[in-house]
Amino acid sequence: MKSIFLLSIVIVFLMITCNNTENANRDITTPRDKSIPFFSIQSDKKIINDPKVDATLKIERNDSVLLQTPIGIELRGAISLSEDKKSYGFEIREKNDSLSNKSLLNLPKNDDWILHGTAMDKSFIRNVLTYHLSNQMGRYASRTQFVELNINDNYKGLYILMEKIKQGKERVAIKKLSQKDSSGEEITGGYILKIDKTAGKNTDFSDYNEQNSFDSRYNAKGKLTDNTNIHYLYDYPKAKNITPAQKTYISNYINDFEQVMASNQWNNPTQGYAKYIDVDSFVDYFILTEFCQNHDGYRISTFLQKDRNKKLAMGPIWDYDLAYGPEFAFCSDLAKDAWVFRYNQYCGSDGWLVPFWWEKLLKDSAFKNKVSQRWKSLRNDVLSDKKVEQTIDSLTQYLHQHNLVDRNYERWSEKKKGQTYKERHLKHIEHIKSWTKQHSAWIDREIDKL
After folding, report:
1. What pLDDT is attached to residue 200?
2. Is the peptide bond before 51 cis (omega within 30 degrees of 0)?
3. What is the Cα–Cα distance from 163 to 171, expressed in whole angstroms?
4. Per the confidence metrics, is the pTM higher than 0.85?
């Protein structure tokens, strides 16, 4: 009996060990390129979704220590939390636990950063590519750097260092809003809102509350309702810092905009939507979301901002690791060329739907003309087939030149007979290149038919 009991323990242990690939520390035979920044994090506590735990960060490159500092670190993501390869958010701290703005890898100083694991993006470039395109279009998106990560002597592979979306001169350049700003011009901005799942949640709709968000008064069809599925999360000021007066101001502003959009005056040149929104920012957000066919666009991972004495603007863009074609189609009708703003028609049973005002905007001839003109201009420049392909090739060459693909695949993937890691990776890259060219041509044909 004792032998059977011990054997059972051994079997259970082996099952746990085999299934827990996150903790598997494989021997990586592909040599490390020391010119690539290497992030080493040490913590005595288990890194969890919330709150952040104390740790230390050391950044090395070419046998030199670029930075060694205390940090607070936590897991981040929603669906991606179920993946073995996690993403992390961290803040830089001083020894007394106060926050510290520092430049990482020549990026502008800040205390808030993200290490994105690209677990769901086997090309490793979807976010980097899209943020690069946004910045070229003149719209701020997070700056990025490819790095390697080690946590508690466990090699985690290729990561993308990203700027967290945050108010500040070098990030989202809106006015700082203090708790003293409760009236007059001061209360008009700046704000950052987010249409998204709550932090760390995937399917829980009960986690929206008066502290962290406010509800739209309209459903996805533009009908007044007490049971909406459109929620606006407070991102800046944070939910714990925003005052009741500020909540009232920004929720009333959104409600006024939506009320106009639901009325028969929605496209009135002076009293319609243009009174409330920065139209050009909505045009650019629409174009980039549709160019990449980002199925998360409009309905989750969607940021809006309102600066002081200015109109509501879209952006920055965020979370494009499920974009670029049918590899990640959520519904069958989206597994082909299709307009993502019509997501509700394809995937109406989803809990997170596109706000009704996108459909209304695309019924206005003035808005559609702006979209068409901007698209055609970008297709001759930033979004031309040639420039997009050059950017993709440049990113891909960098990853292979520095052994980052092989080292990451070796850490997280099993070998496939007759296929190298590079060949597997290039199939994902070729998909993005060919699909983007084909989809852009489809938009060229369809843009004036909206």
Report:
1. 63
2. yes
3. 8
4. yes
